[in-house]
Design goal:
With about 525 residues, this protein is mainly alpha-helical. It has 20 helices and two strands.
């Protein structure tokens, strides 16, 4: 018995590749450091926690550089001979691109938050600094873990690690009924979606006997006929939780109230990093785990894409410029519409012979969207310092009081609309449109074209408002350094990408899996 057991026990020993898991690990460790340091720092020195968090996220992003040499995997199952058969964590090109998006986006969010927390000090709206930075870093660690996950258990755990701190961040404004209501709505709807996803995972496990994505892909090709319906249900239900994170209709209803109730940097974080989490999860479970069931998830995602972009753009079109928080609400509904565009290439992957190219279109669009949407939220944070109701009408005359901020916001809005000089936005939309046409989804390309025209109206209307004559004197304050850095960085990235848009597609689609 001993001779037989020894090799089996030896095969369970894991050798962890610490370099491969460094990016999410650094974010998690810095989160713990910040939480403990908060106990010992006085009120005057707690501003240091923000800069420690910024440094930690920068270090986590830099930890991606040594991983560019080649794919690395860890937490793998091995045969008795020591050969790897399936891994739970893989740092391939797809992982690195999404981790870069997540960590860079979290870094820009942290810069916005430094200013937001400082402005709220000594007011009834003051935020608990230690808790805020711990929650932000913890959520970023989970979001960075998810694209590297290669089994359903790790995927669900990463999804919840990214989500649970986000619930608390949304409701972190004490004694604010709007914030508490937003957090509760976000929490309840997310928990429901997660429960449905777990039911789907259990169905998939019941039909395949494994949780590893590559093994699921193999097992689903020869599912017993009596379990075929169960497997189909598992595929659809597994997608629900990730569709919720992307704010795909009909799982989008939490978005506007959550964005309005959350601190503005948290709304920016959810609009970009939350979507990155959802889309990377959908890509992994569809293209990697369920390719043999493309006839199930392909039409479902195509319908979701059409519904999502239509609901988002029509709702954004109806926003009234003088309504309180209308600027944030428009960005919220715009993000729903953008989620529809992002779903198009994933749906196209079900019909395309080159799934990598189709998925590359989604990743390229996500990189563009992350840069310009965070930039738009950064300018919104600037305006909110003097006009906290953040109405679209509050942006009237911004060019006269802050010409650079107005020009930058106008550029971001044109990128989202897909108009010059926002070349990167136009290029990204053409890439997504081409993915639909190449896959034979002509009807979806038509729906997208109609929605792009609808979106032009509200983006151009907001852009025109920036250059109209202001009513009354405009209050001008000094722009804090962190907020200036966030606006400047997103502007530089947007302009640079517009100068070489093909570089984004090449970076996003080369050897994803």
């Amino acid at each position: 018995m001993t001779a037989v057991a020894a090799p089996s026990v030896a095969s369970l020993v894991q050798s962890v590749d610490w370099l491969a898991i460094a990016p999410p690990t650094i974010a998690a460790v810095v989160a713990l450091v910040v939480l403990v340091a908060d106990l010992f720092l006085g009120e005057r020195r707690k501003a240091l926690l923000g800069w420690v968090s910024v440094a930690g996220l920068a270090a986590a992003a830099l930890a991606l550089l040594p991983l560019l040499d080649g794919d690395r995997s860890t937490f793998c199952l091995k045969t008795l001979k020591g050969e790897q058969t399936a891994c739970s964590y893989t740092a391939d090109h797809f992982t690195l691109v999404i981790q870069f998006l997540v960590l860079a986006g979290a870094l820009l969010t942290a810069l916005l938050s430094v200013t937001g927390i400082e402005d709220a000090k000594n007011t009834p709206r003051a935020l608990p600094e230690g808790e805020f930075w711990f929650l932000l870093l913890s959520s970023a660690a989970g979001a960075a873990l998810l694209p590297a996950s290669r089994d359903l258990a790790t995927l669900v755990v990463a999804l919840e690690v990214a989500s649970l701190p986000a619930f608390a961040l949304v409701g972190i404004k004490r004694d604010d009924r709007r914030s508490s209501e937003a957090a509760l709505k976000f929490f309840l709807s997310s928990v429901t979606a997660t429960a449905v996803t777990l039911l789907g995972v259990s169905f998939v496990y019941a039909t395949t006997g494994t949780l590893h994505l590559t093994r699921i892909a193999t097992a689903l090709t020869h599912v017993d006929g009596q379990f075929h319906t169960l497997a189909q249900a598992g595929v659809v239900l597994t997608l629900v939780g990730f569709a919720f994170k992307t704010a795909a209709a009909p799982f989008h209803f939490w978005v506007p109230d959550t964005y309005v109730g959350a601190p503005l940097p948290v709304a920016a974080y959810l609009s970009v990093i939350g979507k990155a989490v959802g889309f990377s999860g959908i890509i992994l479970v569809t293209v990697v785990a369920f390719p043999s069931y493309a006839d199930v998830w392909g039409p479902a995602l195509a319908a979701l894409a059409a519904l999502t972009m239509t609901v988002g753009n029509v709702a954004a079109l109806r926003q009234q410029a003088t309504r309180a928080y209308s600027a944030v609400r428009l960005l919220a509904w715009s993000s729903v519409g953008q989620a529809g565009y992002l779903l198009v290439p994933i749906a196209a992957a079900a019909y395309s012979k080159d799934a990598d190219k189709a998925i590359g279109s989604t990743v390229a669009y996500a990189l563009m969207y992350a840069a310009v949407n965070l930039g738009a939220f950064a300018v919104a944070a600037l305006v909110a310092r003097t006009k906290p109701l953040n109405r679209i009408s509050d942006y009237r005359g911004l060019y006269r009081s802050r010409p650079l901020a107005a020009l930058v916001l106008g550029f971001f809005l044109l990128c989202l609309a897909g108009l010059p000089p926002g070349i990167i936005g136009l290029f990204a939309k053409v890439t997504v449109f081409s993915a639909a046409v190449d896959a034979g989804l002509g009807w979806l390309a038509v729906v997208m074209a109609v929605n792009v025209v609808i979106a032009l109206y509200y983006y151009l209307q907001w852009t025109a408002t920036l250059f109209r004559s202001a009513e009354g004197e405009q209050a001008v304050q000094r722009i804090p350094g962190p907020l200036t850095a966030a606006i400047g960085l997103t502007a530089v990235i947007g302009v640079a990408l517009s100068g070489a848009p093909q570089m984004v597609l090449r970076f996003a689609s080369t050897g994803l899996f």
